[in-house]
Automatic annotation (TrEMBL), chain A:
Residues 426-468 form the BFD-like [2Fe-2S]-binding domain. The gene is nirB. CDD domains: NirB_Fer2_BFD-like_2 (cd19944). It comes from the Bacteria. Residues 628-764 form the Nitrite/sulphite reductase 4Fe-4S domain. Belongs to the nitrite and sulfite reductase 4Fe-4S domain family. It comes from Streptomyces roseicoloratus. Residues 8-306 form the FAD/NAD(P)-binding domain. Pathway: Nitrogen metabolism; nitrate reduction (assimilation). Its cofactor is FAD; [2Fe-2S] cluster; siroheme; [4Fe-4S] cluster. The keyword Secreted does not apply. This is assimilatory sulfite reductase (ferredoxin). SUPFAM superfamilies: FAD/NAD(P)-binding domain (SSF51905), Nitrite and sulphite reductase 4Fe-4S domain-like (SSF56014), Nitrite/Sulfite reductase N-terminal domain-like (SSF55124). Pfam families: Fer2_BFD, NIR_SIR, NIR_SIR_ferr, Pyr_redox_2, Rubredoxin_C. The lineage of its organism: Bacteria, Bacillati, Actinomycetota, Actinomycetes, Kitasatosporales.
UniProtKB/TrEMBL annotation, chain B:
Keywords: 2Fe-2S, Iron, Iron-sulfur, Metal-binding, Nitrate assimilation, Oxidoreductase. This is Nitrite reductase small subunit NirD. Residues 14-115 form the Rieske domain. It comes from the Bacteria. Pfam families: Rieske_2.
Length: 844, 119
């Protein structure tokens, strides 16, 4: 092919849809056969406008970029940023850019998006007035808001609420002024709007519905107030207009292309404008069904269609764009809002089924026809069922609509699973992926890779997971087909003392000889530590520990560590308190009282840990094991010694227990508390083992839990003497350690244990399995073998060598660990990124 | 004594540390001349790897403190913060196709008799 015959494709507008169009061209190999030129008005290449607001939660403009590194170079695409197209000469087939560059085209694609509509009110151009569309808009809002205290948003639609959330996040007293009688008038109906309003007002935003904006009042050219349609004035220092968007069709109008009466570049099903050499896609286009779509998914479909048409015949995507689903699920200001199908019940003869709970701000409405066919719906406050309901639109659900709107746990259980969905149900609406396509895959990563489903808004992931083959494999991880408790038994009976030996002898065939993984290494490390109770960081053991155990401290989000000295029972002398204060002051650490009756010192660099601990160990402190799956704290109430109600010395008992079980490695962390009487000030019944004093001794409760799934502890035994209490706890803990699964707290373990509490009582009180001697002996070995890990580390230069920031510059502090002041202390100087966190990540 | 070396974008190699400083299965961080940081690892078989130390999910310089493992025979490190896994040979994130970290070539150099490492 010679240059003269290479066709040129010019794309005007490098937004979300423009970028998708380029990807679709590249996928079809068109970029190899054609010169592709992109004119981009903004100073940066395409970014994720849908996630724009996440800039305020710490994402950088770079994080939002939609262009993979090297994409343009790889496909030979010429991209001109900061250089918008200004005129199109269709006769000559030329586009002129602002810089004066002129490009001849064979095919022109317009993807110019929309502009925010600003109502023509006096004062709209004053200093302090903004729109909310681009990164530059956000930067300007952020800068201006720095010394302001009040802000208002004009428009209570989807974008208005996002903008309001952003202003609130910037610390402003925020008002929302909406002309319609409810929030989000397009997506939700009256009931949904009311539920939304309640929730948003509870967050401290002020909402003015049914109110127009008449004038922006200014002083010296800056906003000072808004005059509202009811004549009142609302004092505000800035105004963000979010009153809808309009297609950017000026270029098209200027060159005589057909545009719609109310705007939008008219296109046919193949996204061609009135000039067959010119295409229009995305928000600037008026689709053949007479609509301008303000959502990204329809724009992506148009991008695929246009690319397929340009690529030539035979492409299955050339079937054309005939309209799209307007379903949306959003998380606005933390409230789930979803609408799908015929949300307003516009179809003739449609009926509503409504569930509304104003106390919790939940509103759900399904629209059905006379035969029970689901037509659409609105969900506010609880959009859990969106992923299931949307694909069912147009069909008759297998259970009644009443059951579908009731919250779980009310009335008959709903037996509606994704298996009830038809094969062609669209599960992921962002990428238009059907159930059939998803069931061709076997894992979530595979689904994401092959179909892109789940990589957009993410709302379909839960349903996708349910469609994938159920995990029947109970094995610990990809390396072992045994559970944790089975591995414990194997290690115990065969006296295995190394991870490598266990992996090579009992690992899955494909994992033998390998490295293991981040799941089994710490698990086996913990089993070996429970069985052998030596120092956990020597030899091969060092490589098994999670980073927290490896550095005997807790890793924080900026790479620094926190230090938690043990304070048994929460009792501490003034001298020791002073030492903690001095250490914190001398090393500049952030200091906080924890929820576990001790003190956490944050912000230590890895290379500072040894010097900090030298000071602490010298003052008599030991490691608090805040980093380990081990005993955390035994909290106490002040008890009989001081309290007028106390019947036993709860502090003494708490200290005794904490010193006995400190350092004990377990499947998950262990917590305890001792209360001096039934008033329970130490909250013992929320602990793995909790003790409450009685007039004649101690009651022992087990299996309690705070955290994500709280569980009240069960009473295991009553009126125990000191010795009986300790013996019973020894047995209980060792039985748990031996039989529990990885990351299973005593609460979940007890729930799962066959025979439950009665069986547990049989084993540890009545010794039904004849195990008790062995369990006690294991605990005795633990108590005898305990040593303070920090003291042992400081004693050994070899062990200290790991505490450097850099192996090649042992004296250099890590410059990336920086702090800024806050409330007279420090806090990490780090943008908080949240690119899709893995679920349950903390527990892995 | 064997030295571990790492290559930056050009053809030059910089010494990081004695190879024996690395514990199999764990990593160390190295400071690069331009201020970037590398995470250097050794696996059970003694193979060495280096990737960028910055965890792209949190922005913290911590990948060197993650645990390494293998999946389908390929080595990876799991970030110690949110546990996303990165292939040590390609830098690709196994949990998110869109994310990759830089990989640095590494080699071990045993000094010859005249103690001059050859390239
Ligand atoms: C520091 C502290 C918060 C505070 O400032 O008060 C804290 C901080 C953390 N908690 Fe907690 N928890 C703290 C008291 C609690 C409590 C209250 C208590 O112990 O009385 C609870 C509820 C009680 C319970 O556990 O049943 C609590 C329930 C959790 C959970 C949920 C556990 C569950 O079973 O659902 C996690 C997550 C986990 O372990 O998987 C968690 C995890 C964490 C982690 C380890 C998260 C992590 O992996 O990074 C935090 C580590 C902080 C650090 O680096 O030092 N933390 N955490 C408290 C330390 C207490 C101490 O002195 O050791
Ligand atoms: C805060 C916010 C939140 C949103 N949330 C959602 C959501 O949750 N779900 C959803 O589906 N949609 C959402 N949207 C809408 C979504 O962003 C748009 O549908 C999508 O960006 C449209 O893509 P586009 O490429 O057509 O237009 P755009 O992304 O706007 O891109 C058009 C580009 O063309 C450029 N341009 C214009 N004229 C010219 C010219 N003459 N020369 C060169 N370049 C030009 C513009 O500068 C712009 O960069 C949201 C939008 C915003 C602002
Ligand atoms: S639990 Fe009882 S003894 Fe302890 S502080 Fe409360 S009232 Fe006093
Ligand atoms: S529906 Fe948004 S990612 Fe699937």
């Amino acid at each position: 092919m010679t240059t003269s015959t290479t066709p040129t494709i010019v794309l005007v507008g490098h937004g979300m849809v423009g970028q998708r169009f380029l990807e679709a061209l590249a996928e079809r190999g068109v970029t190899d056969r054609a010169r592709v030129v992109v004119l981009c008005e903004e100073p940066r290449p395409a970014y994720d406008r849908v996630q724009l607001t996440s800039y305020f939660s710490g994402k950088t403009p770079d994080d939002l970029s939609m262009v993979e590194d090297g994409f343009m170079e790889r496909h030979g695409i010429e991209l001109y940023t900061d250089d918008p197209a200004v005129t199109i000469d269709r006769e000559a087939r030329e586009v002129t850019a602002r810089s004066g560059r002129v490009f001849a085209y064979d095919t022109l694609v317009l993807a110019t998006g929309s502009y925010p509509f600003v109502p023509p009110v006096p004062g709209k151009d004053a200093r302090g007035c903004f729109v909310y569309r681009t990164i530059e808009d956000l930067l300007a809002i952020e800068e201006y808001a720095k010394d302001k205290t009040v802000g208002a948003v004009v428009g209570g639609g989807l974008l208005g609420l996002e903008a309001a959330g952003a202003l609130k996040g910037l610390g402003l007293d925020t008002h929302i002024v909406e002309f319609a009688p409810r929030l989000m008038p397009v997506q939700v109906d009256e009931g949904g709007g009311a539920a939304l309003l309640r929730t948003i007002e509870q967050m401290g935003l002020t909402v003015h519905t049914g109110t127009g904006t008449q004038e922006i009042v200014t002083e010296d050219g800056s906003v000072t107030a808004m005059r509202l349609s009811d004549g009142s004035e609302l004092a505000t220092e800035m105004v963000v207009f979010s009153a809808g968007v309009r297609p950017r069709d000026q270029l098209a109008r200027d060159c005589g292309l057909d545009v719609g009466e109310r705007g939008g570049i008219a296109v046919d099903e193949l996204c061609r404008t009135s000039d067959p050499a010119v295409f229009a896609i995305g928000e600037c286009a008026l689709a053949s069904d007479g609509r301008v779509y303000g959502l990204v998914a329809p724009g992506y479909e148009m991008a695929q269609t246009a690319a397929a048409v340009i690529a030539g015949p035979g492409d299955e995507d050339t079937k054309g764009f005939t309209g799209a689903d307007l379903s949306t699920k959003l998380k606005l200001l933390g409230v789930d809002v979803a609408s799908f199908g015929d949300a307003h019940g516009a179809a003739e003869g449609s009926l509503d089924v409504v569930y509304s709970d104003s106390r919790s701000g939940i509103y759900k409405k399904l629209v059905v026809d006379g035969e029970g066919t689901l037509l659409g719906g609105v969900l506010v406050g609880d959009a859990e069922s969106y992923g299931m309901l949307r694909p069912l639109t147009g069909s008759r659900p297998p259970v009644s609509p009443e059951q579908l709107v009731l919250p779980a746990g009310v009335g008959a259980p709903v037996a509606l699973g994704p298996s009830a969905l038809p094969d062609d149900a669209v599960i992921c609406s962002c990428h238009n992926v059907t159930k059939h396509a998803i069931t061709q895959c076997t894992s979530l990563p595979e689904v994401k890779k092959c179909t892109k489903a789940g990589t957009g808004c993410g709302s379909c992931v839960k349903v996708i997971e349910k469609l994938l083959p159920a995990a029947t494999d109970k094995g610990l991880c990809g390396c072992f087909s045994y559970t944790r408790s089975e591995l414990y038994e194997i290690a115990r009976t065969l006296r295995v003392t190394s991870f490598a030996a266990l992996l090579d002898s009992h690992g899955r065939a494909e994992a033998k000889g390998g490295e293991g993984c981040e799941v089994c290494k710490p698990t086996v490390g913990s089993i070996l530590a429970s069985l052998n109770n030596g120092y956990i960081l020597d030899g091969e053991q060092a490589a098994l520990q999670d980073t927290n155990d490896h550095h005997l401290a807790n890793l924080q989000r900026n790479g620094s560590y926190s230090v938690v000295p043990r304070i048994p029972g929460g009792e501490i002398t003034p001298e020791k308190l002073i030492v903690i204060g001095e250490v914190a002051r001398d090393f500049g650490l952030y200091t906080k009282i924890t929820g576990g009756q001790r003190i956490d010192l944050f912000g230590a660099r890895v290379d500072q840990l040894p010097s900090i601990w030298t000071r602490l160990v010298d003052a008599g402190f030991e490691s608090g094991h805040a980093y380990g799956k081990a005993l955390r704290t035994v909290k106490s109430c002040v008890g009989q010694t001081w309290c007028r109600y106390g019947v036993q010395d709860s502090v003494r008992m708490a200290i005794q227990l904490e010193l006995r079980y400190r350092g004990l490695r377990a499947p998950h962390k262990l917590k305890s508390a001792v209360s001096g009487c039934a008033r329970e000030c130490a909250e013992a019944q929320s602990k793995d083992f909790g003790i409450i004093a009685t007039a004649s001794g101690w009651n022992l409760y087990v299996g309690g839990n705070g955290g994500a799934t709280p569980r009240h502890a069960d009473l295991l035994a009553q009126d125990l003497s000191d010795a009986e209490l300790v013996r019973l706890i020894d047995r209980f803990l060792m039985f748990y350690i031996r039989t529990a699964d990885r990351l299973e707290r005593t609460s979940t373990w007890l729930e799962r244990l066959e025979g439950g509490l009665d069986h547990l009582r049989d084993v540890v009180v009545h010794d039904s399995l004849g195990l008790c001697d062995e369990l006690e002996a294991l605990m005795a070995a633990h108590v005898a073998g305990y040593q303070d890990e920090w003291a042992a580390t400081l004693d050994d230069p070899d062990r200290l060598r790991r505490f450097v920031s850099f192996v090649n510059a042992p004296d250099a502090p890590d410059p990336s660990v920086r702090f800024v002041p806050e409330r007279d202390q420090i806090k990490p100087d780090l943008q908080i990124l949240t690119i899709g966190t893995l679920e349950g990540a903390t527990s892995r | 004594m064997t030295t571990l070396e790492l290559s930056l974008s050009d053809d030059s190699w910089m010494a990081v540390c004695e190879e024996s400083r690395l514990t199999p299965g764990r990593g160390v961080a190295a400071l690069l001349p331009d201020g970037r940081q590398a995470a250097v690892f050794k696996d059970r078989a003694g193979r060495t790897y280096a990737i960028d130390n910055r965890d792209p999910f949190t922005g913290a310089q911590v990948l060197s403190r993650g645990l390494i493992g293998s999946a389908a025979g390929r080595p990876f490190v799991a970030s110690p913060l949110l546990k996303q896994r990165f292939d040590l040979e390609t830098g690709r994130c196994l949990d998110d196709d869109e994310v990759t970290v830089t990989v640095y070539p590494v080699r071990t150099v045993r000094p010859t008799a005249d103690a001059r490492p050859t390239t």
